[in-house]
Amino acid sequence: MNPPVNHLLLIDDSPADNYIHRRRIAEAALAAKVVVKNNGREALDYLMTPDDTGHRPAPELIFLDINMPVMDGWEFLDHYGRLDAWGPNEPSLFLLTTSVTESDKRRADGIDGLIGYLEKPLTSVQIESVVRRMNPEERA
Amino acid sequence: MSFSVSASFTDRNRRSVNRALWVAGLIVVGLGTLAMINVAVLGTARAAVTRAVATERAVDKLLSALDRAAVVRETVPPAEAIAGLTYEQRRAESALGELSRLYANDPARAATLDTVAHLTADRFTALAGGATAYRSIDYDTLNDRIDRLLNEEQRTVDARRNRVRLLAIGMGVLQAGGFLALLVLLYYVYRRLLPLNRRLAEEVEEKDEIIDRHESTELTRRMMVERLRARNQDLDNFAYIASHDLQEPLRTVRSFIGLLREDHGQDLGGDSLVYFQFINEATERMQRMITSLLRYSQLGRSIERQSVDLSGVIQDVISDLGAQIKASEGSVTAGWLPTIWGLESEMRQLFQNLISNALKFVDPGQKPIVVIDCEATEEGYTVSISDNGIGMDEAALDKIFNMFSRVNKPGAYAGYGIGLTFCRKIVELHGGVLSVQSIPGEGTTFYFTLPFYVIQSEPARKPPPVN
Fold this sequence. Notes:
The structure holds two protein chains of two kinds.
Chain A lengths: L4 E7 L3 H13 L3 E7 L2 H9 L12 E5 L7 H10 L9 E6 L4 H8 L4 E6 L4 H11 L1 H4 L1
Parallel strand pairs in A: 1-2, 1-3, 3-4, 4-5
Chain B lengths: L6 H69 L2 H25 L4 H21 L8 H133 L3 H27 L7 E4 H11 L1 H6 L3 E4 L4 E4 L1 H17 L8 E8 L3 E8 L6 H6 L19 H11 L4 E6 L3 E9 L16
Parallel strand pairs in B: 2-4
Antiparallel strand pairs in B: 1-3, 4-5, 5-7, 6-7
Helix pairs in contact in B: 1-2, 1-3, 1-4, 2-3, 3-4, 4-5, 6-8, 8-10
């Protein structure tokens, strides 16, 4: 069975979290390819740079952590919003959080392109909900 | 601010000063009256003198008319004498007319005047040569009557003058006495006021010193309050940061313990699954404690205050706890509660915690009865939540508000013991104090105060109790 997602971008600086999340994603067979970037800056560079095929990377799914050095999640979202339109292939963006506070929720609501937030650590249940929400019906 | 100079001292002085001022007032009124009497009397005296002068003039005129008539009669030939006599008679009659006007209201004098008028008329008739009964003796009588008029008038004037003089002397004495008395009184009042004034000045100085002392104490207190407030803020921030940062490594530990168990739990054998169980429970407990600490530190932060109807909040809580109430066959009754200016979600947590506890901590098989009441006090309101549960002894009462403390055997009643610390902080956020009274075996009552400045509504009428 084909994984629902071809390309998943994981933006997080914590090796422990990345290990666990990669494992859970693999167990759920969520994505064929998982790319990990350690902060917002690296992630942006990655997304802006054409790869060997001459196209820019187009992950369908992005998991974004908030607390990262150099450029954190919020700042990344600022720049991400200003990138050229993705067209029909706009990635589904999920926020990874340690604990959801009221202020975080409010901030998240105001951002286009953000589908939702996930509380660490990722569980299989959460991954299932991600798959559901990626469906076009959910997104509308 | 009242001046507490010894009451009797002030009263005594005040009374004597009042009395003195009353007397002075009367004296002034008296002097005024005397002055008015003076003026009136002088007025009548002057009138008398005016009349006397007029009388003299009229009498002179009469006498001169009579004298000149006699001279005319003796020196002028009879043929021309008539004109002169007539002229003098006219003058005499005019004088008599004046006199009669002057004595219009004087019946005694009028009689004398009448005689004078008759005799004068006779005299002129005689001088004109007419036949009359006028004799020389009548001439004396005439003069006598005229003198009498003058003398009586003089006597009247003199009497009046004497009276006035006496009155003036008397009044002068009285007025002098009055002024003297006034001076004495003023001096008396002054003497009375002087020590009072001095005392007051001393008291004012004392009070000023006290005020200064109070102000500096107040300043110190305010500074301390500010420092405490800043400290509390620091502690809250610290608790927030600590608990927030503690969560991450704990989460990592739990995740990898989980992975370890998944990958190698079967391989390890023995009691390793049991070990994993213990580890899991402990880390879970730790997770919850950190979350509680985090939420505690965030209580009441940066949230707008609003009107909160406490009766409504209790309604909602009772409805939310419906299942628990039904399962324990308990009852929750609430009286009227005010509307306050505060944090709605926090007040909900407060009542949820307290009511849920009251329902929970009962003897097995007993039906919990929870009563919520509200009483007005001098400083605001006191809300009470009482139950008929297992109660607590003194040792327990000391500890229940401590974070994470538990006073019952583990497992006897479910819970993590954080609720009452939250409740206390929520009450403090609204300016109140949370306290408890309990009798082991009989029940517990929690009280919290609400200061008047958070109260928004007063009871128009007490609504019926809510069950």
